[in-house]
Every structure is written in structure tokens, then in C-alpha cells.
Design goal:
Blueprint: E1 2-7, H1 12-22, E2 28-31, H2 33-39, H3 42-50, E3 55-62, H4 66-75, E4 80-84, H5 89-102, E5 105-109, H6 116-125, E6 130-134, H7 137-140, H8 148-157, E7 161-164, H9 172-177, E8 182-185, H10 187-190, H11 195-205
Parallel strand pairs: 1-2, 1-8, 2-3, 3-4, 4-5, 5-6, 6-7, 7-8
Length: 207
């Protein structure tokens, strides 16, 4: 299982600083949607230039114009680009077309999707490299939120998948047991007193 760090920051400088601290312990560096909106795709280029050996994930959360948005992200240096599972099939297919042209990958983010299992299978059939079972920050803040719901859906879907939404030292073993290909850690790393140590401990917890 790979470890992905989500750089949910707002400046290129802060993103480069955090990436520099944790890169040795992660496989995928994700530029969060707020960072891309605040700093533009130049942030993607900066991270890829600084860490060319890492998989760089542009969390575009594309909802329309899939081929166009994926193409500009790939040209900026992204290896993976996200498209929302709530988007039309043609949007996902367009993004996949761009990915094939660049020999890169599309991740379909299932945030906000009611039937995550069915949409995961449909997304994979449309050409997604993997799907992300994702609960956003707002959903995680709701009473009764439980990561187990995402893990159960991932196990049932039987497609390559990542999990984002409460991955930390206490839960990462369950994420791996569920069969996830990628564990996505955000605040467990960037909010830690020592982000490098947090990333190192998460990586060490992966069997």
C-alpha cells in the first residue's frame, strides 16, 4: 500500500516546505484543491520540479471539461489528476483520454456520491486508474462519521482504490486490511507537531 500526503495548504512556499520534510516517507504528493485554486497550476510544477521521483497528484476535482482540465494539469507536471464521481461519464472519459495521451492516470473521487460501490465500478470501467473513497473535512466533522463506512465500500467494490478521510496512526492498519492501494493522510501529517516524524510513523505502520 502506498502512502499519499495531501498538501492542504495555501501557498507554494508552505507546500514546498512540507513536501521537503515528508518526501522521503511518502509515495504520492497530493496538491489539495485549495492550494491549486489559491496558487494555480504553477504549484504542481514547483512540486514536481522539486520531487521528480515522486508521483504528483493534482486534486482538481474536475466536474466538467474533463479532457481540457486534465490536459493542462498533466502539462503542468501532474502524474495523477482527480475527477469527481458525480461528473458525467463523458467528463470522466474525456479526462481518461487526456491521461492516455500523456501516459498518466485519472483518479475518480467519490466524495458526495451516494452509491459509492456502483460508481467505483463504473469509474473503473471508464478507465480510472483507481477510485478514491473520500469523506471531506465537512463530512468528517458531522456527528457519527465513521471511516469504517468508506472501508466497507472499498472492500465491496473490488476495484483499485484509495481512502481519504481520517487516515492516521490509529486507522492505517484497518485501511490496509480493507485492501486499499493508497492511504491518503492529510491533517495527520500537516497538523502534526513534527510532520516528518508523523509521515515516517505512518509509512512504518504499512506492512
Amino acid at each position: 500500500m502506498k502512502l499519499q500526503v495531501a498538501l492542504d495548504l495555501l501557498t507554494v512556499e508552505d507546500a514546498l516546505d512540507l513536501a521537503g520534510k515528508v518526501a522521503d516517507h511518502v509515495d504520492i504528493i497530493e496538491l489539495g484543491t485549495p492550494l491549486i485554486k489559491a496558487a494555480g497550476l504553477a504549484a504542481v510544477t514547483a512540486i514536481k520540479d522539486a520531487h521528480p521521483d515522486k508521483i504528483v497528484f493534482a486534486d482538481m476535482k474536475t466536474m466538467d471539461a474533463g479532457e481540457l482540465e486534465a490536459d493542462i494539469a498533466f502539462k503542468a507536471g501532474a502524474d495523477l489528476v482527480s475527477v469527481l464521481g458525480t461528473a458525467d461519464d463523458s467528463t470522466i472519459a474525456g479526462a481518461v483520454k487526456a491521461a492516455k495521451a500523456h501516459n498518466k492516470g485519472i483518479v475518480v473521487d467519490l466524495i458526495g456520491v451516494a452509491d459509492k460501490v456502483s460508481r467505483a465500478r463504473e469509474s473503473r470501467a471508464l478507465g480510472a486508474k483507481f477510485v478514491e473513497f473520500h469523506a471531506g473535512l465537512d463530512e468528517q466533522a458531522q456527528p457519527g462519521y465513521n471511516l469504517r463506512t468508506l472501508l466497507n465500500a472499498g472492500e465491496e467494490a473490488r476495484v483499485p482504490f484509495s481512502v481519504a478521510g481520517g487516515v492516521n496512526k490509529a486507522t492505517i492498519e484497518a485501511v490496509q486490511t480493507a485492501g486499499a492501494d493508497v492511504a491518503v493522510a492529510g491533517s495527520a501529517i500537516y497538523s502534526a507537531a513534527d510532520p516528518e516524524l508523523a509521515a515516517k510513523e505512518l509509512k512504518a505502520a504499512i506492512k
